[in-house]
Q: What sequence folds into this?
């Protein structure tokens, strides 16, 4: 039964609701589980199908059109190396990705715990940190296309 009477106001002794009650426990883990299964499946394929062999995956569109590396160039090869526990090889393909993967895992764990407990979603990262991260990605993008830095940053 609704707490709202025909006048559009709350009935006496009720409080406004912020929507349906939050799911807790296993039912709340559908989102995190779907992400984990999708990412896990993609990583299994990536572990089996080597991106270093030509023809298995498409070329980076930015690299194809401009001849310059984007911040994501080498990510498939880096993830392939990480699935084989080759952190040094992954670092050589895309150091930014190697630094971002643990952060993404931490966010996923926080999301999973928050979903399990039924706590409301909060802003995880202040806007300043998002801007700092985007600035670092832009700096990495520029730096990996400087010929003198190519041996360290190019895939």
A:
């Amino acid at each position: 039964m609704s707490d709202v009477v025909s006048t559009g106001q709350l009935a006496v002794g009720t409080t406004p609701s912020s929507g349906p009650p939050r799911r807790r426990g296993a039912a709340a883990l559908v989102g995190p589980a779907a992400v984990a299964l999708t990412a896990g499946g993609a990583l299994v394929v990536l572990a089996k199908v080597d991106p270093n062999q030509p023809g298995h995956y498409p070329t980076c569109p930015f690299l194809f059109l401009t001849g310059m590396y984007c911040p994501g160039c080498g990510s498939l090869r880096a993830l392939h190396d990480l699935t084989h526990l080759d952190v040094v090889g992954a670092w050589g393909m895309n150091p930014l990705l190697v630094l971002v993967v643990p952060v993404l895992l931490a966010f996923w764990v926080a999301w999973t715990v928050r979903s399990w407990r039924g706590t409301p979603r909060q802003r995880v990262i202040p806007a300043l940190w998002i801007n700092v991260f985007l600035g670092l990605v832009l700096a990495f993008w520029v730096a990996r296309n400087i010929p003198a830095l190519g041996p360290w940053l190019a895939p």
User: Anything to note?
Assistant: The chain has a mean pLDDT of 86.
